Amino acid sequence: MTQSSFKLAIAALALSAGVFGTSTVQAQRNDALLAAATAEQPATLRTLEQLVNIETGSADAVGLKAMADYLDGQLKSLGASVERIPSPNGAPGESVVGRMAGKGTRKILLMAHVDTVYQRGALARAPWRIDGNRAFGPGIADAKGGIAVILHTLRVLKAQGFDQYGQITILFNPDEEIGSRGSKDLITQLANASDVILSYEPTVAVRELMVLATSGAGRVDVTVKGRASHAGAAPEQGINALVEAADLVLRTQDIDDAKRGLRFSWTITQAGTVRNMIPEQATLSADVRYLRNEHFQEVIQKIQAAFAKPRIAGATFELVDDPGRPAFVADDGGKALIAKSQAIYKEIGFDIAVVPVTGGGTDAAYAALGGKPVLEGLGLPGFGYHSNNAEYVVIDSIPRRLYLSARLIMDLAQGR
């Protein structure tokens, strides 16, 4: 899995019956804002083309540098101050942080990632193109469409003369597709300093929706150590790490608990080097998905308890765990943001469905750690994420997505 399984999971759910609820509240439409958002569509398409034509695979230092330069210029043209924060430990890419001061008090964070799953050369195989109502290109939905929505939302608000926020902070991070290991602390820091966080991952072309919860995505690696011996002449002199590992798998089958949203699966194993030797070492790796962050530690404790009852005397165990991206569960503030989004969409004759939970992950989880309300899924409707020749966004969705984004910022800035 790439870390953007959030998008893949909601795409699958949108095709199923796993959506529910649309708001029945209809607010007053802002006709001037809608007209401005509609007029902004051609410029947004041009920005999308420019974004797609900069290749930004997570390991592409050249492309990520070019993207940071581009976004630096775009934010400064909007009047933002810009800070560029290198990824730690020499990793490629920079986080680009823009800040726009207003006359109000509310602080709003807008965030989207610039990296894609595609390696350099994908653009030559699948260049930017428009086919009817679809615009295609590597990473166009995930999440360059979100970047474009942020930039042009800010242009629409500036053209409207709206500055009733205290500060709008914009974060473009370069490593979401590989777990945001370098930017997660920055995400949390900026979110904690904000009153509300809006995240611009894509929604789904076939059914625009938002999610109430996404799973945390972690892993567990266990090394079982035994003792080698000749498999034919003296197997009893050995401690078979493969047998012990297999028994550990059976001893931990009760960890998986779908009713609580805790999914635990051993997925990789390796043992032995030659057929006629009792293996002295075996390794196991497990995929862990969880809806409550404390459930990951529960998993670790249960595995460690299983270590205390080895099948073969003398077998020993080592465990390395990584909780990965944490779970994201919308709190009351997040649920209110979803309801507000539904109401805004109703103003212009569209609706947003709600998915209760997906098994994917999102940077919104890092933003939510401090307890501030977070809304995910404000990017463009698209499909074909992570597929070289099929990723697209829906062009005529641009006005309504800009309207939704701008109206949210206006309302939230004014405490509505």
Task: Describe the protein.
- The chain is α/β, with parallel strands linked by helices and 416 residues long.
- The chain folds into two domains: 23-211 and 328-413, Aminopeptidase (3-Layer(aba) Sandwich), CATH 3.40.630.10; 216-325, 2-Layer Sandwich (Alpha-Beta Plaits).
- Helices cover 34% and strands 23% of the residues.
- The chain is built from twelve helices and 19 strands.
- It has helices spanning 5-14, 31-39, 41-52, 61-77, 122-125, 140-159, 184-192, 241-251, 294-307, 332-347, 364-367, 398-413; strands spanning 81-86, 94-101, 107-113, 129-131, 134-136, 167-173, 196-199, 203-204, 209-211, 213-214, 216-225, 263-271, 281-290, 316-325, 328-329, 353-355, 374-375, 381-383, 392-394.
- Strands 1-2-6-3-7-17 form a six-stranded mixed sheet, sandwiched between helices.
- Strand 18 and strand 19 (392-394) form a beta hairpin.
- Helix 2 (31-39) packs across helix 12 (398-413) and helix 10 crosses helix 12 (398-413).
- The protein is elongated and about 85 Å long.
- Mean pLDDT is 94; it is low at 15-25.
Characteristics:
alpha/beta, Aminopeptidase, Alpha-Beta Plaits, 2 domains
Secondary-structure topology with pairs:
Layout: H1 5-14, H2 31-39, H3 41-52, H4 61-77, E1 81-86, E2 94-101, E3 107-113, H5 122-125, E4 129-131, E5 134-136, H6 140-159, E6 167-173, H7 184-192, E7 196-199, E8 203-204, E9 209-211, E10 213-214, E11 216-225, H8 241-251, E12 263-271, E13 281-290, H9 294-307, E14 316-325, E15 328-329, H10 332-347, E16 353-355, H11 364-367, E17 374-375, E18 381-383, E19 392-394, H12 398-413
Parallel strand pairs: 3-6, 3-7, 7-17, 8-18, 9-16
Antiparallel strand pairs: 1-2, 2-6, 4-5, 5-19, 10-15, 11-13, 11-14, 12-13, 18-19
Helix pairs in contact: 2-12, 3-6, 6-12, 10-12
